[in-house]
Amino acid sequence: MKKTILAIDESKAIRFLLQTVLGQKHQVITAADGSSALYWLSKRNLPDVIIVDSQLPDTENWELIEHLSTSGLYGHIPIIVLSSLDRKETIEKCKELGIKDCFQQPFNPVELEKAVTRLTSNENTKKETVLKAV
């Protein structure tokens, strides 16, 4: 059974890229904004990994990521952050929120796919405390 990935990004091109790169091995659900993502989650859908842009059109920077990472319902789901914000700021914010993987845009899709595979294949990954910034 394929693992489910929720990919949240305003850019249609990025969503298409994520669907194309990750869709061969995983079921990829895409959302263009935080509201759409939260609506999908509210229907009792729980993905195995969430990939999310730190800047979304309907939220403040990092707002959705903070909500998801601190939520009692979704806090256990691994999050991968895509960010075009300052690299140092991104790394610090991810550490603060307990996010283990972040990618600066533009990102290498092959490296992202490796991170997703690692997160979906290793349940012990949730216990890691090391941030991997690519």
Continuous helix count: 5
The CATH H-level superfamily is Response regulator
**In oligomeric terms, what are we looking at?**
single chain
Query: How many distinct beta strands?
Result: 6
Portion of residues in helices? 25-40%
CATH topology: Rossmann fold
Numbering strands along the chain, what is their spatial order in the largest sheet?
Answer: 2-1-3-4-5-6
Low-confidence stretches: 124-129
Verbal overview:
The chain is an alpha/beta fold. The protein contains five helices and six strands, in the order E-H-E-H-E-H-E-H-E-H-E. The protein is globular and about 35 Å long. Helix 1 (12-22) packs across helix 5. It has one domain (3-133): Response regulator (Rossmann fold, 3-Layer(aba) Sandwich), CATH 3.40.50. The chain has a six-stranded parallel sheet with strand order 2-1-3-4-5-6, with helices on both faces.
Give the tags.
5 helices; alpha/beta; 134 residues; globular; six-stranded parallel β-sheet; Rossmann fold
Layout: helices, strands, pairs:
Layout: E1 3-8, H1 12-22, E2 26-31, H2 34-42, E3 49-53, H3 63-70, E4 79-83, H4 87-97, E5 101-104, H5 109-121, E6 132-133
Parallel strand pairs: 1-2, 1-3, 3-4, 4-5, 5-6
Offer a concise description of the structure:
The radius of gyration is 13 Å and the shape is globular. It has helices at residues 12-22, 34-42, 63-70, 87-97, 109-121; strands at 3-8, 26-31, 49-53, 79-83, 101-104, 132-133.
